[in-house]
């Protein structure tokens, strides 16, 4: 591991569970990762794999009941967030750690002016007059490349397009210059053309402000463009972690391999397109009744007896490339 | 916006004309008129006198003529004369308005200032003991008729203090003013505060699930700021609608409550006027109530635009 003083976020053995009528389920099970200043960590996985709950756990915004963080530690700039009381946590939320959500259409309060929503974020954490905060709000809107920021600040969310709203969300999230920004599928709800713009914007601002970024996505294309390191999650667990280059060059977990294979390729001219997209057979198991062994085993082509009996530990395959698979060595052989 | 307002005001005028027709003819359908009642009370009297009196009061004329006569007078500010007191109807009605207005205003204030915060608390603490307790209280508010609650209050005050609040037109102390206006207002307002609470609760529950509430928390906003600033601002619209409708219903509640508490307001006066078939008083009073209801609706629609920037009345 590199110089630890550079670490913005150090999550160890995070465990978040939900108590439901059908039983207890582990949405996040023993997940660890770190983020350095200015670094982008991508968390990848299917719907329901625990990505978003991980993000909400970092913010300590998992609603309790039914959810609760039951173990681990979340060190943000040396402070353990799980040890803080709610009032101290509020001082950190939106200030040192902030979050952009998936749905720009519904994530802004429809009855409060855009500018005022940013002003609120600023004034919650900085001892500024409304006027000074308003100037910062307009500045932030300018920073996220919203044209005519002073006029837009006086408008309501419904007067802005989806892309504009997501820009406003980013402006709000970055208004206090947080050390860590969590972006939970920030572009999923947007048009493809806007997606690229928003991603580029987030990365530019991250570079400019030196923010650590946790990017949650199911889109490996986005990961390849943006992240330095990647975590792949499956059924609440981290199944693989590697640098982007290592992951795309040689995935060690069959699930990661499956995800990559299911990206539709653009056929070369003259060659007929594949008739059917590759898919991973089966579905994500119910988190209430997880198999004893590897959760991916029922869907895995490589699965052997051992996979069903024992959960594979995360093993280092060199250069910090971690994978939890008994057959990691054989993954490369299977196309 | 201007064109919308003009259209809206014209529509209100049409509504009021419709109401005036309905009031007028419904009142005439009710069997008996003031002359019948007077003569019945007096025993046998010469039928010629009866015809004479009917002529004097103008109730022998065709209904359409009577109606036009009333509306014509109304437009000139002439409401006619009370059959009973023989004083101008306006003189009879005007001094009673402030009493009822004060009661209704206090009741609405009571209903909003109790119902909205309790509704918020109940929603925020959904499923807790306090939520259940508040819901039981509000259910009782909805199921207790205000006249019965009024009687309970009067009985209780006699049992506990040996006296009951008597209407005092010029209260000398705060205590007297409280007994005169606040107690009846609370009795009437209890029901609508219960309704306001329930609507606030369900509307808040809906809003608290929204994404922007999570955004507000992610900013580091306090619970109070999230609940009252972010959530209530969005949840208030249905509450305003209900309070607007309640403003109209309140008058019905006041008729009974003014009678129970013996308050000389408009509402009790209306009941007496109906008993005497005092047409000028009844039709003008009901018209007044109609104007209040139609205006309340108008105000509610305007408040929508104030509270929700997405609602704009364009042409």
UniProtKB/TrEMBL annotation, chain A:
Keyword terms: ATP-binding, Cell membrane, Membrane, Nucleotide-binding, Transport
Membrane topology classification: Peripheral membrane protein
Alphabetized PROSITE patterns for the sequence: ABC_TRANSPORTER_1 (PS00211), ABC_TRANSPORTER_2 (PS50893)
Keyword presence, Membrane: yes
Origin superkingdom: Bacteria
Protein's name according to its UniProt entry: ABC transporter ATP-binding protein
SMART domains given in the database record: AAA
Single GO term (MF): ATP binding
Functional description taken from the UniProt entry: Involved in beta-(1-->2)glucan export. Transmembrane domains (TMD) form a pore in the inner membrane and the ATP-binding domain (NBD) is responsible for energy generation.
Membership in a protein family: Belongs to the ABC transporter superfamily.
UniProt subcellular location: Cell inner membrane
Domain ABC transporter: 9-260
InterPro entries, alphabetized: AAA+_ATPase, ABC_Ni/Peptide_Import, ABC_transporter-like_ATP-bd, ABC_transporter-like_CS, Oligopep_ABC_C, P-loop_NTPase
NCBIfam families, per the entry: oligo_HPY
Pfam families membership: ABC_tran, oligo_HPY
Principal subcellular localisation of the protein: membrane
TrEMBL record, chain B:
Subcellular localization: Cell membrane
Boundaries of every ABC transmembrane type-1 domain copy: 97-304
Keywords attached to this entry: Cell membrane, Membrane, Transmembrane, Transmembrane helix, Transport
Membrane topology of this protein: Multi-pass membrane protein
Signal peptide limits: none
InterPro entries linked: BPD_transp_1_N (IPR045621), MetI-like (IPR000515), MetI-like_sf (IPR035906)
Listed transmembrane segments: 9-30, 103-124, 136-158, 178-199, 235-256, 285-307
Domain of life: Bacteria
Recorded family membership: Belongs to the binding-protein-dependent transport system permease family.
Full protein name: ABC transporter permease
Organism: Bradyrhizobium zhengyangense
């Amino acid at each position: 591991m590199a110089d630890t003083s550079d670490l913005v976020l150090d999550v160890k053995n995070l465990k978040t569970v939900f108590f439901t009528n059908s039983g207890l389920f582990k949405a996040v099970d023993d997940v660890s990762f770190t983020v350095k200043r200015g670094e982008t960590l991508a968390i990848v996985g299917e719907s329901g794999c625990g990505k978003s709950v991980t993000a909400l756990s970092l913010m300590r915004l998992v609603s309790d009941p039914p959810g609760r963080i039951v173990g681990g530690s979340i060190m943000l700039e040396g402070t353990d967030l799980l040890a803080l009381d709610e009032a101290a946590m509020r001082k950190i939320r939106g200030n040192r750690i902030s979050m952009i959500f998936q749905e720009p259409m519904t994530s802004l309060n429809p009855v409060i002016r855009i500018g005022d929503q940013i002003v609120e974020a600023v004034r919650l954490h900085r001892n500024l007059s409304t006027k000074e905060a308003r100037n910062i709000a307009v500045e932030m809107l300018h920073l996220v490349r919203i044209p005519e920021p002073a006029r837009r600040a006086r408008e309501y969310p419904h007067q802005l397009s989806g892309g504009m709203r997501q820009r406003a969300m980013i402006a709000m999230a970055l208004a206090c210059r947080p050390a860590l920004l969590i972006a939970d599928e920030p572009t999923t709800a947007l048009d493809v053309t806007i997606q690229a713009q928003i991603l580029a914007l987030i990365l530019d601002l991250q570079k400019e402000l030196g923010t650590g970024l946790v990017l949650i996505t199911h889109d490996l294309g986005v990961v390849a463009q943006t992240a330095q390191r990647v975590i792949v999650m499956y059924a609440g667990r981290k199944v693989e972690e590697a640098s982007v280059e290592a992951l795309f060059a040689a995935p060690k977990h069959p699930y990661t391999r499956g995800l990559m294979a299911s990206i539709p390729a653009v056929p070369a001219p003259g060659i007929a397109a594949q008739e059917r997209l590759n898919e991973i057979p089966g579905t994500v198991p119910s988190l209430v009744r997880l198999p004893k062994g590897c959760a991916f085993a029922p869907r895995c082509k490589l699965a052997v007896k051992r996979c069903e009996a024992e959960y594979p530990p995360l093993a280092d395959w060199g250069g910090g490339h971690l994978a939890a698979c008994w057959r990691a060595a054989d993954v490369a052989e299977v196309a | 916006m201007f064109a919308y307002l003009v259209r809206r005001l014209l529509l209100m005028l049409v509504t009021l004309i419709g109401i005036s027709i309905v009031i007028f003819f419904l009142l005439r359908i009710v069997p008996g008129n003031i002359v019948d009642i007077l003569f019945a009370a007096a025993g046998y009297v010469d039928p010629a006198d009866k015809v004479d009196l009917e002529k004097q009061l103008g109730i022998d004329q065709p209904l359409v003529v009577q109606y036009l006569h009333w509306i014509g007078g109304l437009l000139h500010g002439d409401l006619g004369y009370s059959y009973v007191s023989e004083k101008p109807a306006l003189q009879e009605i005007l001094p009673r308005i402030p009493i009822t207005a004060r009661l209704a205003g206090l009741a609405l204030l009571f209903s909003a200032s109790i119902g909205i915060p309790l509704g918020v608390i109940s929603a925020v603490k959904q499923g807790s003991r306090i939520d259940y307790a508040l819901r039981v209280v509000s259910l009782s508010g909805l199921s207790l008729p205000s006249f019965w609650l009024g009687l309970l209050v009067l009985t209780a005050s006699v049992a506990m203090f040996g006296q009951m609040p008597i209407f005092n037109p010029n209260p000398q102390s705060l205590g007297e003013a409280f007994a005169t206006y606040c107690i009846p207002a609370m009795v009437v307002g209890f029901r609508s505060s219960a309704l306001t609470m329930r609507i606030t609760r369900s509307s808040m529950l809906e809003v608290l699930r929204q994404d922007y509430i999570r955004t507000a928390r992610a900013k580091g906003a306090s619970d109070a700021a999230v609940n009252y600033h972010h959530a209530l601002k969005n949840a208030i619209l249905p509450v305003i609608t209900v309070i607007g409708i309640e403003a109209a219903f309140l008058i019905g509640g006041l008729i009974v409550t003014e009678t129970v508490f013996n308050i000389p307001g408009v509402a009790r006066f209306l009941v007496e006027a109906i008993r005497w078939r005092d047409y000028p008083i009844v039709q003008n009073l009901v018209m007044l109530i109609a104007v209040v209801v139609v205006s309340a609706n108008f105000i509610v629609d305007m408040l929508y635009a104030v509270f929700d920037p997405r609602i704009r009345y364009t042409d």
